[in-house]
Amino acid sequence: MASIKDTSLGVMGLEDSEKIWEIEKEWNNLLTKIPNSHPFMTPYWIGVTFDLYGVIHDGKIYALEVDRELAGIALLDVDMENKRGKTLSPRYPHYFNEFIAYHEIREEFVEEILSALDVFIITQIPESSPYYWIMKKLAENKKYSINITGQRNLKSLIIPENVEKWLYKIKGKASRIITSTLKRAKRFEEIETKRIEDVSELVDRLVFLFNNSSHSKSSILEFKTFVENLAYLMVPQGILKLIELVVEGWTLASILALEYRDRAYLLELSSITHIKDFDASIYLLFKYIEYLSNMGFKELFFFPPTSTMDFINFKNIKLLDITITTG
Fold this sequence. Notes:
It contains ten helices and 13 strands.
């Protein structure tokens, strides 16, 4: 990879998402070369975010090229008069927010963007993200002011290679709850998990998912519109998934998830009232973990944090809101 001196940082105005779709192919190609890329980095997620939420000031695409190849990209809402830039983000759900750049040039890419602004704001960046530590290092070296203005927490589960051994290993309350749920499921003559693959059917089936959500009505209606727009872009790419638990002809629980590379991201889990002491949400979530294990997935993230299986020892992740003042 060439040094930063051989690169060029372009800044384009973003009046609508058309410019995002113009570089969709190059954008996706860049993501294939970033080891820990995730679905929140894709042009689909960011494009829909821009279309539905827009910007307060001016939308800008910061694109870094190396030898005419896209090597870094960031979309910001920029107040040019006050030289303030903020990353784009939907209000719901909480998710990862990071820069997108090759490993070799990510420090230089962040420095280029920060040097062009007096104030930079990024929300929901994982504390473990290399970009957080890059910004901290830059702030220290350049005497920038860096402040954490907010924090959210989410959970993740390292997917076991062998679910049966994992279930035996966790033991105690967790093991009893899952085991009893699996035993109760045997009472039903017909029980199956169904993956909705057709985009039109998936959009139709979202009604059940959101009607039975435990979240506030206002946030769910907003999120439903967001997901419907995502579905037409992400379902054909094999990223957005809807999994339902059907018991004797009745849908009792649903999972909405993103599956990207070797990680999955659970966006919503809903179920109707328990039937015959049977917790449909626990059963479906366990079956989904089993599926992910069989397919070789490494980790499952929960957006927002779930209480359905809080008896399991999840990994805790901090999402930080950061403000950096350079001027």
